[in-house]
Amino acid sequence: MKRLREGYTTGACAAAAAKAATLLLFTGCVPETVRVLTPTGRELCLPVADAAVNAGRARCGVVKDAGDDPDVTDGLMICAEARPIPAGVVLRGGPGVGVVTQPGLPVPVGEPAINPVPRAMILREVGSVLPPGRGVEITISVPGGNEVAARTFNPRLGIVGGISILGTTGVVRPMSEEACRESLGLLVDVAAARGLARLVLVPGRSGEEFAVKRYGFPPGAVVQMSNFVGFMLKRCAARRVKEVLLLGHHGKLSKVAAGAF
């Protein structure tokens, strides 16, 4: 069997682009590749696909390579613009990076959707090449990010205007169940943060549409669980959801009744 190829997270790409832009701003040299260290201690070498200097600012881009994972962000250019400031490192979100509008996520409301781990990666990599006594403002942007975000969970999570900069390991593992579970779990987190005490768990998109249109459940209270019934029930319990209704086709739910979850 062919081994599936790993890829890079948007967080790793953003860290590499930010490091490259900082190097370009302060040295005038465009690196062909950039090395970044993942939270697990693994070193990645990412190619720089785009670079430019304009009006005292440097901009570099790294193409998101998802490997063999069916990731909708595959092929997007993750860009970073570096601008000199008196001191420190400031991180901002630009066009194509979503903004958090609802509580319950690991990023505060009103902030760009750059999760804590990739944020730390970006700040660390930029700081490693920032000359002493200098400061830089980094703006992460993703051309086409707003359009691609419509095909992700972001609209359901209250993230508007673009994709999220994600990744806890820096590496995309093809067809990762862990990544899928965590994406679904965030839907529970957001619903609980909104004060919804009763959630409806459905197997998939058809069940979600049925629950809303046929039975009138509010869309925010209907959450897809895929095949991760046990995981999602535990997530609901951890978030102190008082009542959970499982709604779906009898064939699907008969497995749950038999304890196959």
Characterise the protein shown here:
With 261 residues, the chain is of the alpha/beta class. It has two domains: 7-172, CbiD-like; 177-257, Rossmann fold (3-Layer(aba) Sandwich), CATH 3.40.50. Helix content is 33%, strand content 26%. The chain has eight helices and 16 strands. The chain has a five-stranded mixed sheet, with helices on one face. A three-stranded parallel sheet has the order 15-14-16, with helices on both faces. The chain has a two-stranded antiparallel sheet with strand order 1-13. A hairpin with a 5-residue loop joins strand 2 and strand 3. Helix 1 packs parallel to helix 2 (116-129) and helix 5 (177-193) runs parallel beside helix 7. The chain starts with 6 loop residues before the first strand and ends with a helix. 38% of the residues are buried.
